[in-house]
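Work through this:
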Amino acid sequence: MMINDITAKAGKNAKRWRVGRGIGSGSGKMSGRGHKGGGARAGCSGRTLAEGGGLPLFRRVPIRGFSNFKFETVYQPVNVVDLDKHFADGSDVTVAAICEKGLASSGKGPVKVLGGGAVSKKLNVTADAFSDSAARKITEAGGQTTDLSGNLARRVKEKAHAEIAARFVAEAAAKAEV
């Protein structure tokens, strides 16, 4: 005889235990919940990871190490070969122009120009950061590099202040109309 033969005859699921049907049923009066307290009342589910008075595992295990995840700057990379391919000779390449050409996404973080490939055009590049090889290749081709990395925090703060100021101006104009 196999287990599937037994479950086929007896039924797959056990019959539900009916509680609170008198003392003689073996599960009457308190219905298996014990005397008083939160566990005897509806809505009590207990604390997650509780170990019944022992110090929980997540408190016993030490915290180790430190992560710079919250503090690191994640740059959007753009190679100099892409700049050479998408921009004309002598043009001014800015972060906005790079985003407009689809080489980077606006609002996804600062743009860093990397030295992958070769540059044959004279470009005036303004970006948030440059690798050493990218800056060298651009200057050797006769172009210029303007690094905004020192101004990054200031520009973020100025943008936030400009947005707040614009909101105050809009609210003042709305009040003046009323």
